Amino acid sequence: MRKIDRSRVEEQTGAKQWRLPLGRMAVESLWDAVALSGVEFALERLEAERTMLCGARYAHLAERQALRAGHAKSSLSLGGRRAELERPRVRSKDGHELSLPSWEAWSARDPLERRAVEQMILGVSSRRYARSLEPLPEKIAVSGISKSAVSEHFVVGTQKKLAELMRRRLWGLKLLAVMIDGVHFADHVVLVAIGIDLGGSKHVLGLREGATENAAACKALLADFTSAVLPPSARCCS
User: Fold this and answer.
1) Which of 60, 91, 105, 227 would you label with 184, given CA atoms 20 to 30 Å apart?
2) Sign of the torsion angle spanned by Cα atoms 29, 27, 40, 119
3) Cβ–Cβ < 8 Å for 49, 100
C-alpha cells in the first residue's frame, strides 16, 4: 500500500491543521472569571453592610446614625498579591470613621505572608515571585509583588512561625535523650536542641543563635526548652 506524503498534500491543497491550546485558554478564562467575581463579591458585600448602617441611598431617614463618606483606595489579598479596590467608607453623625465588619475581618489576616514563605521554601526567589503567580485580569490593579514587598512578607511570616515554635508546650513528651548542635547559615550559627522520645521520634525543642562553644548561649537554650518540656510543678528552683 502506497504511503501518502502528508506534507506534499498540504503544499498542494494549502490546508494546514492548527492546534489551539483550548485547555489552557479555558483555564485562563475560568481564572479570570473567578478573580473578577471575587472582587465584585467583596465590593457588593461592603456596600450591603454600608447600606445596613446608613440606610438606602437618597432615603430620608430621621433616625439615621451613619452617613456615606465616599470611597477610599484600599487593597485585599487575592492570588498571592494585593488587589486594589475602592473601599466604601462610613462616618458616624459626629464625624468618626466606622469600620465595616467584613473589611475588619479581611484586614485582620494577611495570607501573603504564608504564601511568600511557601514559595521561598519551594525555591522561588523573591525576584521571581511574581512570575510564579497565576496572572490576574488586566482590570484588576495589583501590588505587593515587588522584591522588597515579598522579602518583607517572608520575614514577617517566618518570625510568626518561629514565635509559634518557641511558644509550644511539650509537657507530655517522654524523652530518652537530648542533643545540642550548631547549624551554620553563612556567617551565623544557630544552636538547635533535638529531643528523642521513647518511640525514636525527634522533636525540635529549642533554637538560639550563638556558638556551640559559648556556654552562655547553651545555658540559655537549655532554659528555653526546659520551660517548654517540663510543667512548672516539675521544675527545680536554682
Assistant:
1) 227
2) negative
3) yes
Q: Which of 106, 110, 188, 112 is nearest to 151 (CA)?
A: 112
Helix spans in the chain (H):
6-13, 22-54, 101-107, 111-121, 147-166, 215-229
pTM metric for this prediction: 0.52
List all residues 6 or more positions away from 195 whose beta carbon is below 8 Å from its beta carbon: 170, 173, 175, 177, 178, 179, 202, 203, 205, 225, 229
Q: Which pLDDT belongs to residue 88?
A: 92
Angle, helices 111-121/147-166, rounded to nearest 10 degrees: 90
pLDDT at 9: 45
CA–CA separation, 155 and 152 (whole Å): 5
- Rounded CA Rg of the chain: 29
Q: Cell numbers of 99, please?
A: 469600620
User: What pLDDT sits at residue 63?
Assistant: 77
Beta bridge partners of 206: 193
Which residues are bridge partners to 190 per DSSP?
183, 209
Assess contact for 86 and 73: CB atoms under 8 A: yes
